[in-house]
């Protein structure tokens, strides 16, 4: 998959295009992308995605924008897994925000992307003030010679698959429902960095995963699996327990930290890029009365998580 920053002034060929944030790449997104790639193969042109960084809600209201389900690197990997050929990442700014729907159609779709066909969500809006809609795209397509089709809602257990629905499930601690909406376990990926070694003092070594995001959509202690290279023993997956939060017992700075304890793991993981797959919530974040109480709680968390895997529930979240 090719990744481009921005849109060229003049396309080097035609494309089948979709546009959106694609946060989390849930089942609704996957259905749209499946249609996108199928249509692209039929027309023998690349399947292209145009997305924004930051997304418009983060640009206009960074403090109230919802937590991202996936960082840009994670999203790109998920899009590649769906068979997308090209992704154009637009740096959203005031110039883009001021672009009228008509300008967007002419400079981005027609000239910049050479769009031959579009597949969009049924609630897609574009241009300054969100003034452009599906009807406008259909008319432009009829005038300029490209097709436009809308993907309708994908429901999971009678609920619309959406990024906000996934966030709600994660916030409620319902990891199983979040996985239903996503079509996979929710995950966070990042590089292992040095921490303050508190885990070693407590008898539970942890891998500290760098979080390159303002907010995370979940907090607490979870049963997880970790996937990645350099896990040892020829394995690419390892069970464990993860904590996401501000570590109130040992840290008063309020910084969100992701720490993972891998069961019976020996070795160093610094600088490894790992993916943490969240399967089941064990408990909320708690401030304990000292390290002894924290150590006892971790021991209980580990015992519960081991039982989860012993019961054969891995992969069923």
Keywords:
317 residues, alpha/beta, Rossmann fold, Elongation Factor Tu (Ef-tu), domain 3, 2 domains, six-stranded parallel sheet, six-stranded antiparallel beta barrel, 10 helices, elongated
Question: Could you please describe the fold and organization of this structure?
Answer:
The structure is a single chain. Strand 7 (155-156) and strand 8 (159-160) form a beta hairpin. The two termini are 29 Å apart. The mean pLDDT is 89. 32% of the residues lie in helices and 26% in strands. It has a six-stranded parallel beta sheet with strand order 1-4-3-2-5-6. Strands 9-10-13-12-11-14 form a six-stranded antiparallel barrel. A two-stranded antiparallel ribbon has the order 7-8. The protein folds into two domains: 2-156, HUPs (Rossmann fold, 3-Layer(aba) Sandwich); 186-310, Elongation Factor Tu (Ef-tu), domain 3 (Beta Barrel). Helix 7 runs antiparallel to helix 8. With 317 residues, the protein is an alpha/beta fold. It is built from ten helices and 14 strands.
What is the element layout, followed by pairings?
Layout: E1 2-5, E2 15-19, H1 27-43, E3 47-52, H2 56-60, H3 72-81, E4 86-90, H4 94-97, H5 101-112, E5 115-121, H6 134-144, E6 147-151, E7 155-156, E8 159-160, H7 163-171, H8 175-182, E9 186-193, H9 198-202, E10 207-209, E11 220-228, E12 237-245, E13 257-262, E14 273-283, H10 291-310
Parallel strand pairs: 1-4, 2-3, 2-5, 3-4, 5-6
Antiparallel strand pairs: 7-8, 9-10, 9-14, 10-13, 11-12, 11-14, 12-13
